[in-house]
Amino acid sequence: MKELTKKQKKMLRRIFAAAVLTLAAAFLPLEGLWRGVAFMVPYLIAGYDVLWSAVRKIAHGQLFDEEFLMSIATLGAIGIAEYPEAAGVMIFYQVGELFQSIAVGRSRRSIAALMDIRPESATVIRNGEELSLSPEEVEIGERLIVRPGEKVPLDGVVIEGHSSLDTAALTGESLPVDCAEGDRVISGSINLSGLITMQADSLYRDSTVARILELVENSSEKKARVENFITRFARVYTPCVVAGAVLLALLPPLLFAQPWSVWLERALIFLMVSCPCALVVSVPMSFFGGIGGASKQGILIKGASYMEVLANVKTIVMDKTGTLTQGRFQVEAVHPERVDGETLLDIAAAAESYSNHPVAESITRAHGGDIDKARLGDVTELAGMGLSAQIDGKLYYVGNGRLMDSVGANWHECHFSGTVVHVSQGSDYMGHILINDAVKPEAAEAIRELRSLGVETTVMLTGDREEIARAVGDKLGIDKVCAGLLPGQKVEQVESLLGAGKLAFVGDGINDAPVLTRADVGIAMGALGSDAAIESADIVLMDDKLSKLPLAMRIARRTMRIVRENIAFALGVKAVILLLGALGIADMWIAMFGDVGVMVLAVLNSMRVMIKIE
Length: 614
Fold this sequence. Notes:
Oligomer: single chain
Helix content: 40-55%
């Protein structure tokens, strides 16, 4: 009862009162007009709003909806003195409406949970004072204080303090994320521990939380083809059934001298069971629940149409850097020749310690220890080749094969693909260090899962060198690798693959906007805080875990399976009862099950889509 709204509680009281009065009327020793009056009281208590809605819609020319059909069917039953059936059908119809309202409310709450990320206020430091303002009032560059338990109101950078942030509502991940001075924080995160001071780098309307909320709120506008089909079907189906009911009531008495009361009752049964509400309610609710369930796990789907496409994807094209790999260089192997590996790495790290090049940073990061820069003498950068460095009074060269050739070192290529940094002392070759953009640890398993889900072809696009791309593709089991591509060539590759089943493109959303929009469904991953991703992609995976991709496909396929189950069940049961009603086998109580019962079962089935998939 606590979960019921005020309106739902009122409806429940009406249903209870009408049910009690109907049972009382059934036991009263009344006949004729008084019997009719006794049943009309609970009938009107339960269904006055249905009758009034039907009248208003008729006045505006809106016929053939469920209120119209239910009103005609129950008033017709009263006309042939089937009072208990009329009252009972209206009561159970309202029971179905109440159940539908509760189920839809639960589905909406799965979306509302995401809406809790909306920050209510921001503590801004202006002129040395702390002011509590609406996030919309904060300007770019202003300093904000975020205390433990508060939501981060805007995107920005931490300038003082350190803490842990709960990003579960954004990414679906339960583990907190640490932040300290210099780290970027995202609006909608919850500060768990320490007080932090941050500087806003966006207005609220451009913040991550505002874009996500807009995306979710507008998701219902992009209907799937099956939803549009159900809408069109209901427009044609209901008038045809009404026409069939009229013919059923008139033709047998007129042409074959059959009893009017018998065929009128059959026509009313025909009308009652014809209500398409089981389809009209359960199909959109299934998609709504699927979108809500996905959002809880950090997967934002912009509309039911994209969920429908994702469920049928046969080809998945993926960018390499940031999608299949971590997008960050790291030392993969150290191959010494004349010294041990630790010494080789120590020399290379000392030489590269002043450089901020990604390769240099990966070497110093792999070294891990403190670098005594007092050991260093002159360090000279040699354009296009590497550098020379005086270390402990000795001259070392660190760079590529061209540099080794220039100093006369007897070097050799690495047996593995990647970026290779060679080291020599003068012309004495000391070995090399292999550096690569590391493959994400879950990438191979994600590719295997996609295959098990029926994805026929996986393709990797990259601007990287052929040998590096091929090594990553072979490691992950990618079917086709296209390397050395410019952004425009990536679009051409995707266009060449279109047509052979539905195609999804998966990118990091930073520079993949043209390709994301060209695919049948564009998926941006690791897109937390990326404006380009949220704008361009049809589906947004809020963290950078590739395992969310097969999860998104499973959610989409389960949603579509439940939609198909509801359509087949509802149409099948209604077809049988329509036939039985026309033959005089089914009565009004069976017809009521064909309408209300089928709707309740379909809605129950739709609610399964909100069960979390791991």
